[in-house]
Amino acid sequence: MTERLVQLRAPGESREETGDRPAPEPGSDHVQPASRRVFIETYGCQMNINDTELMAGKLADRGYVQVEEPGRADVILINTCAVRENAEQRVRGRIGQLQQFRQENPDLVLGVTGCMAQRIGDRLVEEMDGVDLVAGPDAYRDIGERIDQIRFGGLERGQRLLELDGSERYEGMDAVREEGVTAWITVQRGCDHRCTFCIVPYVRGGEKNRDPSAVLSEAREAVERGYSEITLLGQTVNSYRWENWDFARLLRAVALVPGVRRVRFTSPHPNDVTERLVDVMAEEEAVCRQLHLPAQSGSDWMLKRMVRRYTVDEYLEKVRMLRDRIPDIALSTDMIVGFPGEREVDFRATLDLMREVRYDDAFLYRYSPREGTPATRFPEEDFVEDEVAQRRLEELIELHREIQRDIAENEVDRDVEVLVEEPARSDGDVLGKTERNKAVVFPGDEDLIGEYVSVRLTDTTGATFRGERTA
Ligand code: SF4
Fold first, then answer.
1. pLDDT, position 173
2. What average pLDDT score do residues 161-186 get?
3. Cα(92) to centroid of ligand 1, in Å?
4. What is the pLDDT of residue 175?
5. Whole-angstrom distance between the N-terminal and C-terminal Cα of the chain?
6. 309 close to 271: Cβ distance less than 8 angstroms
7. Residues near ligand 1 with C-beta < 6 Å?
8. How far is the CA of 452 from the centre of ligand 1 (A)?
9. What is the DSSP letter of 55?
10. ∠ Cα 251 257 262 (to 5°)
């Protein structure tokens, strides 16, 4: 069993082992007797991973070390997602499971953070035994202090940190980066849209953008620590604005940071894909030829009910603009089937859009109602029967797989550059990604993690490639 000192770690750097040594009290030269070990489990999107990194940073400031098993921890945090019902159910189950560790450690502090905490934190504290703290996404700055007050200051359990704070821009909070070869940098939090299926604006509040100088200094710091791939994050990342900076300008500035070799961003809103942005994507070598462009539906009627604020033609115009300037750009999307009011003709329109765009990848969902979102208030008769929604989802998945396999088979025999990310599941192999975000497995050992390697694609399952090193 290893545990690590919480600190920024570069790709390929080894973890610093700390054994059972207690962490020093912040601001003290003396080793304090209190054990400070934290276990953090993260659910959901990349932004949540980045939020976990920020929380880990705040806890590291107070001398906490991260452990990899909950049974070794004095503090357990579950950083949650509220986007889908089943993710919330899993977390409830997990909270129950983790209570077993109180038998050995009655002083254990268990906290629930993130979007689910923001959405139903009060209920979690009231209804579930053993939730000592709930903290929403704008409360991470104070989390370490509050945990220590519970542990050492006699503060009662069941603390609620649930204020949304429009002025919290997370500046001065240093990320303790998770393992991996990509540095995730959040440039924007919250969202000003109100898509009727989405809980995000209610749990993360309105759009808040970061000062570009802070983003750029984080990018430079990531490079100093060995990262060469950066992913910029935001709920509608390309609507970013700060004084006379728009997202296109920010993207170019990050791409030009010396040492940055690849830049990605996610998730853009189709309406904010502008000519200026596409120019930067086409001109800057470091910007990857890949874009996740959520469509959600191929039917104008559904898009209107979802309040996506574009029509299918407008969406397709963005796709054309991208492909005109970047012909081999790899596109991916999100699609929802079975949204309230979806008729067979609407679903067929979604299939048509999939056929027309021919996405390299797609995240396909059956609509799942989220309490508190406008879509739950559509008339009951609009809700699509489960079997119908399931049948549509299966048909959409089948079509997507067919298209994806066809695209991938045409890419076999190409030479690509792969950034190696981790050992593959198959013995003796490693897994990495191409600039166009294609997953490639090829023979190699862990020394290659964090390296760029030339690989010839030799075979594909559709979703993943096999390859052989060429140099
Ligand atoms: S744009 Fe729509 S789907 Fe995306 S986060 Fe905002 S409300 Fe949710």
1. 85
2. 87
3. 25
4. 82
5. 37
6. yes
7. 191, 193-195, 198, 200-201, 235-236, 269
8. 34
9. H
10. 65
